[in-house]
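Submission checklist for the structure archive. All mandatory fields must be present; incomplete records are returned to the submitter.

[x] Identifier: G-D-S-L family lipolytic protein
[x] Organism: Flagellimonas lutaonensis
[x] Residue count: 499
[x] Sequence attached
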Amino acid sequence: MKKLYALLFCLGLFLVSCEEDDPIVDNTPPEQEVEYTAGSANFSKYVALGNSLTAGYSDAALFRAGQEASFPVMLASNFSLVGGGEFTVPFMADDLGGATLGGQPILGNRLILDFSSGSPAPVPVEGQGATEITNTLSGPFNNMGVPGAKSYHLLAPGYGNVQGVAQGLANPYFARFASSANATVLGDAAAQGATFFSLWIGNNDVLGFATSGGAGVDQTGNLDPSTYGSADISDPNVVAGSIDAILQTMTANGADGIIANIPDVTSIPFLTTVPHNPVPLDAATADLLNNAYAAYNGGLAQLQALGAISAEEVARRTISFSAGEGNAVVIIDEDLTDLTAFNPAMINMRQATEDDLLVLTSRTFIGTLANPDDPTSINGVAVPLEDKWVLTREEQTMAQNAVVAYNQAIAGLAAQYDLAFVDANALLTTLKETGFTLPDGSVVTAEFGTGGGFSLDGVHPSPRGYAIIANAMIEVVNEKFGSNLPGVNPLDYTGLYIN
């Protein structure tokens, strides 16, 4: 028996030796080529409607490279795998982003990172963009995204009237490719006979309020958008009615489509990057400021004794500085009790808290002088920041309430018109809270300047961010219509333009 075991052992070595000498044969079956299908959808004629998010706007401008990296272009590349046709874009003339009207600059260039100060900071790229608004392009165009458009603007005749651009009565981006002076965005889109469409609109109906620090008015209850200011919050019924009209028109001939809801505009890097307490002070300066605000603080105590304000508001309004880092800026808060009837010097000011959101552009304003001849007139310290620099907790609630109302309407309309629906609000919340892990193990986040998800304006996604959005849209399209489109690789798109 022992000899048998020994023989088997030697035979095993012999077989191993033979296997090592023999050529290795790979019996793994070859990877089969995927056969893509459109499912029940017809992607032969795709038209995209929306605003700057649809156009591919990033880094505070619309420019050719950004347009090429728009999510509709990404969707169209997938649709082409299953019969999708040509997708035309009203390209800007170059990659600068600036534009002129009659030779006069009216649109600024895109932002790039400048390192000349020792720390990177976004600055406009140098040069003058070659895009002239009066040089009307010949359409039609599949990407009907118009930067700056609110929901009701897509239905407004003359929104692309070149003659009205200078007066602020028309949109310069739409003026470049509108079919006529009296055309509507919706009309030009519908005339193309789309078999499939995407709609992402409503963001600008509240975004301007947020990015202006709440300088606008909440127009809830006002159904006349012709009376709205550019920074106002649109009435939810106006937004819902406009979207309903758009969907009714686009689906009239049986087109399928996808619609996205509105992200929380208070969570974008434009409002989450600058801290509420960015002021460093030495002991002497802190003492100087505390002495300067002593009369104001004392006035608060006196008015509390008179019953004009509560102890809680006195505590909220009392201003105090200390030596070192982390001093909060002084701001104007319109929601505080108006005390100027008692004393004109008792204006509505207080120091910011972590509940306040400072706009991104405030970082280069805080610390500047309100009066160049007065070295003590430091903005945000000795001189309170105006309302436009800060979105207070009360103003945030107004914006968030609008987003909730808009999104309830959009979800209902998506079901009513049997559309694919993407929850862009949840998507961008994930981007902010946890980020998205890419195939190479890197993580895309909403961190300003370094996260890779947002561009340098702090409002619009980067090309890589748009790719994540495109994949979310393709996923719900596949689920809704039974297609198996592959999506795009976010690593093929930049997270930050270097120049």
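[x] Structure attached
Curator remark: Residues 279-351+357-391 form one domain. Residues 277 and 326 are 5 Å apart (CA to CA).
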